[in-house]
Amino acid sequence: MAQAPRITLIGGGLVGALLARQLAQRRFAVEVFEKRPDPRRAGFLGGRSINLALAERGLQALRTAGLADEVLLRAVMMRGRMVHAHGGASGLQRYGVDDSEVIWSVSRGALNMLLLDAAEASGVRFHFGQSLLDADFEQRRIRLADEAGTVREHDAGLLIGADGAGSALRATMNAYAPLGERIEPLGHGYKELEIPAAGALPPELVRQAGGEGRFALEPHALHIWPRGGYMCIALPNAEGSFTVTLFLPAAGAHPSFATLPDTAAARAFFATDFPDLLPLIPRFDADYAEHPVGTLSTLYLDRWHLDGRALLVGDAAHAIVPFHGQGMNCGFEDTVTLAQLLAAAPGDSASVFAEFQRIRQPNADAIAAMALENYVEMRDSVADPHYLAKRALGAKLAERIPGHYMARYRLVTFTHLPYAYALERGHRQDALLEALLHGAPDVEAIDLDAAARLFQSTLEPLPELR
Ligand code: FAD
Fold first, then answer.
1. Which residue, 102, 2, 104, 19, is CA-closest to 360?
2. Are the CB atoms for 227 and 272 separated by under 8 Å?
């Protein structure tokens, strides 16, 4: 049997570490160069959202790597969206039909460290504090710098970039042979704030907020405070706190990060727009002043690879906005596809990389589009009567004709069907729901038998779901 090629991975974040684990499990010799220090020694310096929603696609990839159970032990189940209206009323909109369809809040740092441990246990060699500077694709050599600025060179073998949205490998590839890069900024940014565990807050406040046990709010939900053009969300952390993320236009509108430059302005804005949330964030002034405003963009590339020499995966190839909670999940799906393709044809990386892009790119484009649409849904539509009527009609049809109707959110979140299929099916289902509601805006007045017949005669049955 031909010897498997050596693989050099740039980036030991979520996608890089999981990919490294799977490649090592398939007996590839894998080395990973990661810019940051080892988080298991230095503490996690993630800097971005400190928790993430893990859904079925990501879980399936973790199962493939033998890690799902371990990850779920540290995760908090979220059954649906807890929508907090302006007047203070809140209600749970379930994501799925029951507790078999839930998502999980996981700590980015803990997950990353678990994946690093697992990859190392499978034989991966990590080099921390090593930042890729550039690559010589003719000689297949890369140059790296450590924190002190000392530069070293390394023979790369196959080069794979999992170095995130600002990928240095992508920049180097693009300079060598343009990749057709297009970055579309959303124009909205985000800032993270923290609700501490219930014990750090007055009990009366926790009671009013619907807290439970060590949590100041209902723990098993993704909380949303939709306010039309902007919103706050909060995801639970296992130790009882919540990470709150404020999403707001960057500039050019009010409110925006530009018009809320200091804590006094931000506090006054929260007191008006999020009066129930503000008292739950006792370190509001410090969080607001100290935490940076993150930017959000969608990245599109015509080419993800340089023949058989270098390939981009995860955010480095297809960063998306976070509103479907699928960026990591999508990157995790990448890892399974790539590891399987490479294992099947280890000596033909040019064909493998081309096939990887052929399979994954339409799906990355589809989830990018759905993530953008979901921002409008989360910040605005979840409180809109027409949206709620459509959701209610969809729920009735899902019960009556499960083989013909499944909400797009569920197709994306709870199945392994390709994202591109979910997007296309979702559009066709939505057109039918709109037609039914156009004729009779009151859901109770709709003839469900006729509605079911319409779906069954217009749409082919759903494929096997997993
Ligand atoms: P990254 O996580 O960015 O990791 C890249 C790694 O490469 C890092 O460790 C970095 O240090 C390293 N690196 C960078 N440059 C170099 C270099 N020059 N040399 C060496 N190493 C380098 N996704 C979900 O699925 N669910 C969610 O709920 C969710 N919420 C999100 C919320 C927010 C606010 C944001 C911004 C994103 C969210 N995402 C979510 C998306 C998710 O964070 C990304 O899709 C995921 O982190 C991508 O993983 P990655 O490994 O490709 O990139």
1. 19
2. no
Do 67 and 45 meet the contact criterion of CB atoms below 8 Å apart? no
User: Could you tell which of 8, 49, 60, 107 is best to mutate to test the pocket of ligand 1, judged by most ligand atoms within 8 Å of the CB?
Assistant: 49
Please report the ipTM that was assigned to this predicted complex: 0.99
> Could you give phi then psi for residue 343, rounded to 5 degrees?
-65, -30
Question: What's the burial of 368, exposed, middle or buried (CB within 10 Å: 0-12/13-18/19+)?
Answer: buried
Q: How many angstroms separate the alpha carbon of residue 341 from the centre of ligand 1?
A: 23
Domain boundary assignment for the chain? 6-76+106-183+298-373, 184-296, 384-458
Side-chain half-sphere exposure of 424, counting CA atoms within 13 A? 11
> In which element (H, E) is residue 409 found?
helix 408-414
What is the tens place of the pLDDT at every residue in 283-340?
A: 999 999 999 999 999 999 999 999 999 999 999 999 999 999 999 999 999 999 999 9
Name the 3-class secondary structure at 33: strand
Nearest CA to ligand 1 atom 26: 325
CATH no. for 6-76+106-183+298-373: 3.50.50.60
Residues 6+ apart with CB under 8 A from 272: none
CA 420 to ligand 1 centroid distance, Å:
22
